[in-house]
């Protein structure tokens, strides 16, 4: 009988579960993220959170925020071109657009953490200004 309160047993199970999920990812074109594993107090079982995200044609996770950034005309209204999505520029990676947010509508990553900001801050940090054509030529 398996003891689910043993941390090393749960770590081995996690590796086995993740290996099995990698096979499924290739078949269905998605990416699984296995959350923290917590065990029941009596050792009878464990629980975890499993998140499945669809991948786009480039192999990146296709979130609704990223789709909104590309499809939504508001990114162009704010002066942010859609080709900066998922590109790291000056330590910032724009990962999406929150269409329902009034002020802080741009979703970005910095140092592995996610933040939201207004478009002016993103333009300042990324060096984007009106009429700065050389910047976009160097990025592309």
Write down the Rg.
Answer: 20 Å
* Helix and strand run: HEEHHEEEEHH
How many domains make up the 3D coordinates? 2
Structural class by SSE content: alpha+beta
Q: Give the biggest beta sheet.
A: 4 strands, antiparallel
Question: What percent of residues adopt helix (DSSP H or I)?
Answer: 25-40%
What's the end-to-end separation, in Å? 57 Å
Please work out how many helical segments DSSP would assign.
5
User: If strands are numbered along the chain, what order do they take across the biggest sheet?
Assistant: 3-4-5-6
Task: Tag the structure with descriptive keywords.
140 residues; elongated; 2 domains; alpha+beta; four-stranded antiparallel β-sheet
Protein architecture, described:
The protein has five helices and six strands; from the N terminus they run H-E-E-H-H-E-E-E-E-H-H. It has 140 residues and is of the alpha+beta class. The strands form two sheets. The chain has a four-stranded antiparallel β-sheet. It has a two-stranded antiparallel ribbon with strand order 1-2. It folds into two domains: 7-54, no CATH class; 64-139, no CATH class. The protein has helices at residues 7-28, 64-71, 74-77, 119-126, 133-139, and strands spanning 30-39, 46-54, 88-89, 92-97, 106-110, 113-117.
């Amino acid at each position: 009988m398996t003891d689910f309160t043993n941390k090393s047993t749960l770590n081995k199970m996690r590796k086995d579960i993740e290996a099995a999920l990698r096979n499924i990812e290739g078949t269905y074109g998605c990416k699984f993220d296995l959350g923290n594993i917590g065990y029941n107090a009596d050792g009878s079982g464990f629980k975890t959170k499993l998140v499945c995200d669809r991948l786009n044609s480039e192999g990146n996770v296709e979130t609704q925020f990223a789709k909104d950034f590309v499809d939504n005309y508001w990114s162009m209204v704010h002066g942010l071109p859609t080709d900066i999505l998922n590109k790291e520029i000056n330590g910032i990676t724009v990962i999406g657009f929150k269409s329902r947010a009034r002020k802080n509508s741009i979703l970005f990553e910095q140092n592995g953490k996610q933040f939201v900001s207004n478009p002016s801050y993103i333009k300042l940090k990324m060096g984007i200004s009106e009429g700065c054509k050389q910047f976009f030529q160097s990025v592309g």
